[in-house]
Design a protein that fits this description.
This protein is α/β, with parallel strands linked by helices. The protein has a domain at 2-146 and 178-205 and 264-274: 3-Layer(aba) Sandwich (Rossmann fold), CATH 3.40.50. It is built from 10 helices and 13 strands. Strand 4 (62-65), helix 3 (80-98) and strand 5 form a beta-alpha-beta unit. Helix 3 (80-98) runs parallel beside helix 4, helix 5 (151-160) packs across helix 7 and helix 8 (234-242) packs antiparallel against helix 9 (253-259). The chain is globular, with a radius of gyration of 19 Å. The relative contact order is 0.14. InterPro entries: ComplexI_NDUFA9_subunit, NAD(P)-bd_dom, NAD(P)-bd_dom_sf. Pfam families: NAD_binding_10 (PF13460). Residues 7-193 form the NAD(P)-binding domain.
Length: 285
């Protein structure tokens, strides 16, 4: 099959790209500023917000949208509204014009009507656009993703190197980290499975962790003893996060909101395609 991946050079997209290529599919990756050639993959340079999506979709059997941002850069036009909603609207128009038969869309766990964070609000509106479209779609909502240099866990690793690590609030928020290559294998497995058309899957790993437990798990992965921690009141964290509009602090108000919300799921349906899920404690790249 001919597979087009938007965001195929990103953290999750790279795993998806590799999984399709490994199965012998013809993979084309769209990137705004491709840094290098990728063996066995066609790379197209295109700004997905302004470029001709119809042209690159022509002749494709499957399109995977793995584009998403966790932090806005308004001065560069990179906002939640643009990258989550406007992009999906443009993509659906191009799909309708060209007639691509399959759309696989990466959303996020926690996406729901009435969400508090703007990240989840825009993810929800994107999902709604897809559900209303005349397309053979499947939506995937992963929890925190790990494997390789996962941005969130890279930050935790840096914090665990400190003599005392800062802990937002009580540290008891629950998360269910999921392996990026498990997600990729799932997408490849269901690409031609009609039973998954029109379905939304929530993707969580095999074990739930509090934020405190994730700190300790990250330290153990780095072969360090669990770091001592001190709790920072949410009111103080909110003030720090608000500074992100002017200076590069580690967390934004939107990220803080999500960090305080449970990010777990009881959806186990996807395991029948993937098999046993990879635990966070396992050896992984």
């Amino acid at each position: 099959m001919r597979v087009l991946i938007l965001g195929g050079t990103g953290y999750v997209g790279a795993a998806i790209r590799a999984a399709y290529a490994q199965k012998g599919h013809q993979v084309t990756v769209v990137a705004r500023h491709p840094a290098r050639e990728i063996s066995g993959v066609t790379v197209v340079s295109l700004d997905v917000l302004t470029g001709n999506l119809t042209g690159i979709l022509s002749g494709m059997d499957v399109v995977v949208n793995a584009i998403g941002i966790i932090r806005e850069q308004p001065q560069a036009g990179i906002t939640f509204e643009a990258m989550h909603v406007t992009l999906v609207e443009r993509l659906l128009e191009a799909i309708a014009a060209v007639g691509v038969s399959r759309l696989l869309h990466i959303s996020a766990l926690g996406t729901r009507p009435g969400a508090v964070s703007r990240y989840h609000q825009t993810k929800w509106r994107a999902e709604e656009r897809i559900r209303q479209a005349n397309a053979r779609w499947t939506i995937f909502r992963p929890s925190l993703v790990f494997g390789g240099r996962a941005p969130f866990f890279e930050l935790l690793a840096q914090l665990t190197r400190l003599p005392i690590a800062p802990l937002p609030g009580s540290g008891q928020t629950l998360f269910q980290p999921v392996y990026r290559h498990d997600i990729a294998r799932f997408l490849v497995s269901v690409t031609e499975d009609d039973t998954t058309v029109g379905q939304t899957y929530e993707l969580g790993g095999p074990k739930r962790y509090t934020l405190t437990e994730l700190y300790d798990a990250v330290a153990r992965k780095a072969r360090r003893h669990p770091t001592a921690k001190f709790s920072i009141p949410l009111s103080v964290m909110g003030v720090v996060a608000s500074l992100s509009r002017w200076i590069p602090v580690p967390i934004t108000p939107d990220q803080l909101t999500m960090l305080m919300e449970p990010n777990i799921t009881d959806d186990r349906r996807w395991e029948k395609w993937v098999g046993p899920l990879t635990p966070f404690e396992a050896d992984w790249d």
